[in-house]
Amino acid sequence: MAASPLPQPSAQPSAQPSRTSNIISAQRASESAQVPASWRAKQLVFIGLVALLAIWYGLGGWRSPGIERNAADNLSIFDFLGFALLGLLIWLTTPIAWTIAATTFHEAIRRKWMTALLGFAVVMLAVSTFFTWMQPGEEQKFLRDYGIGFTVIMTLIAAIFLGVAMIPPEVERRTIFTILSKPVTRGEFLIGKYLGLMATLMLNLAVMSAIFLLAYAVFVSHREGGFAKALIADGVGISRQGLGFDLSNLARALFLHLGTLSIMAAFAIMLSQFLSGITAIISCFLIYFLGQSASYWERLAGGSGDASAAAKPALSPALTAFISAIYALLPRLDRFDVRERLVNDLPIGLNYLAKAGASGAIYTAVLLCVSYFVFSDREF
Questions:
Q1: Is residue 323 part of a domain?
Q2: What is the pLDDT of residues 69-108, one digit of tens each?
Q3: Domain membership of residue 147 as a residue range
Q4: Alpha-helix runs per DSSP H in the chain
Q5: How many structural domains does the chain have?
Q6: Is 13 part of any domain?
Q7: Do the domain assignments include residue 347?
Q8: Which has the closest alpha carbon to 198: 272, 109, 279, 112?
Q9: What is the pLDDT of residues 194-219, one digit of tens each?
């Protein structure tokens, strides 16, 4: 979608503008900054596609495939709230926000440390098959864990470090005055920054995933004696369900990681509003590890964890209430980690992707709202 240009500011601040403000100030638009009808029409098309996905989900897409279809399946109003929030994000993405997102994306991919990080990840994933000797007899399991885990760590580092560096540099260089002196609302600025960050993370995730899946396909094909044999689901060999099943499952697991990235990116942007850079980075990593262990906190709080009632420790009511509060505030990042299903050759259903995605969208929306309230109260 083509971005609607922005007008020149009525008064230029004395500070030297950054590349972001230079690109934005080069755009011209009417003072009203009205969203063009053609843009709204495109938005309605995308919102309609989201609505069709919601309808498909409501008509039966929420059920697990095959033998896993059981009482654990459920249809929740929160699932549809995730679709609604996605549609709302599309509606709020104005041409101005899209321009800011494109500029943020171009700036992010030109950072030298980002290029070095992506290059290192590509090399390590491409040669991942050479490390399978470390786990003889379970090379496939090692390769899956290594590929998924390495991709998760590399993209998580990018999400946190980029997210923390989205807004504070604009404030420190005082280029925020140049940007907000145009018909750019603070909500559009925040949404544009977030979308630009997510576009950068999606590009990194796509490149790493492609390299890993290619390396995995070559490894399995070589061990099975050819690509055609590797595709056969014969119940034996290194790929018992067939290479096609493995690649599909791995691709879904990697796609599911976008939920973690969206939450952590929103956390990084929010915490950078009132914490110093290093403190915000440390806090993000702490939140990530706590979110990954959310099921453990659930069991401590007396929830529906796997531990039996006899195995649960006896805690005082005050401590139980404190743990319950922590669990209620933590993001359920463990929902986006399905490596256990990969090891056991269990399918990752589309219903699971939808449910986990809905929970991630709700949590991300809350974090972005908090970021907006903090950002809107600041004097620029």
A1: yes
A2: 665 577 888 889 999 999 999 999 999 999 999 999 999 9
A3: 96-377
A4: 19-25, 37-56, 77-92, 95-109, 112-126, 139-164, 168-172, 175-180, 186-224, 227-230, 243-271, 277-292, 294-300, 317-329, 339-343, 350-377
A5: 1
A6: no
A7: yes
A8: 109
A9: 999 999 999 999 999 999 999 999 98
